[in-house]
Specification:
This protein is about 40% helix and about 15% strand. By secondary structure, it is an alpha/beta fold. It has three domains: about 55 residues, no CATH class; about 110 residues, no CATH class; about 50 residues, no CATH class. It is elongated, with a radius of gyration of 31 Å. Helix 4 runs parallel beside helix 5, helix 5 runs antiparallel to helix 6 and helix 5 runs parallel beside helix 8. The strands form two sheets. It has a three-stranded mixed β-sheet, with helices on one face. The longest helix has 26 residues.
Length: about 230
């Protein structure tokens, strides 16, 4: 992408110079004058310096650093690459940074998960499960595709942050809506009961729904996760 250095320099030429190349530059035509060719060479160098400066600023962020630049980040925190790809190596560095400040408490674990998934701490739910376990829930809809692809890696490195002896599980939640028509046939003095057991092991919910049935009859539905 051009940053307009050539146009700027040519526009600043005084009337003592042939200004034909001003028109040529704006029309993407070959330059004709010696001063135009000289400015074109200088502008090429300035464009290159500008692009590299932008890349330096971009890669100064750990999330964007790659290759040798990312290696220097790892060396600063004592994390060896050992052939790991950039995405996983970046996670290892972040975990090391967090672990240096981590006390293993619940708040730290939530903040660590939010940092690794690049979301807000309020978007992370954590349940303490007896005995000595924590289950972390993150909505898949809140995550970028790259974070979803590396979720398994994130779950692995998250175990380094929790306190020793504490088990940890990470769940990505998804929400789907399904609709169906259910016909219940009830007769006199007969009660209809339906039990639905969705295959979810980490949540428990029970509710009773009263449906409109004939002649004072009760239709009872219980929704309970399977064990």
């Amino acid at each position: 992408m051009s940053h307009g250095y050539l146009h700027t320099m040519l526009d600043m030429l005084t009337g003592a110079y042939n200004r034909d190349d001003v028109r040529n530059a704006y029309s993407s035509l070959p330059l004709e004058t010696n001063i135009g060719r000289l400015f074109n060479t200088l502008a090429w160098g300035l464009e290159l310096v500008h692009d590299q400066s932008d890349k330096i600023l971009l890669w100064d962020d750990l999330d964007n650093a790659q290759g040798a630049v990312l290696d220097r980040y790892g060396e600063n925190f004592g994390v060896a690459r050992d052939g790991a790809p950039d995405a996983f190596y970046r996670l290892l560095i972040k975990v090391k940074m967090i672990s240096l400040l981590s006390g293993g408490d619940i708040e730290t674990v939530i903040n660590a998960a939010a940092t690794l998934f690049d979301i807000e701490p309020e978007q992370v739910d954590l349940d303490e499960v007896f005995p000595a376990k924590v289950w972390i829930y993150v909505d898949e809809a809140d995550l970028e595709a790259e974070k979803i692809d590396t979720a398994e890696l994130i779950a692995g490195v998250m175990k380094r942050i929790v306190a020793a002896g504490i088990g940890m599980r990470l769940f990505l939640r998804t929400y789907r809506r399904n609709e169906a028509t259910l016909y219940l046939n009830t007769g006199a003095a007969i009660s209809s009961r339906m039990t639905i057991r969705p295959p979810v092991i980490n949540r428990r919910a029970s509710s009773t729904i009263y449906l409109n049935s004939y002649a004072y009859e009760l239709a009872h539905i219980t929704i309970r996760p399977a064990h």
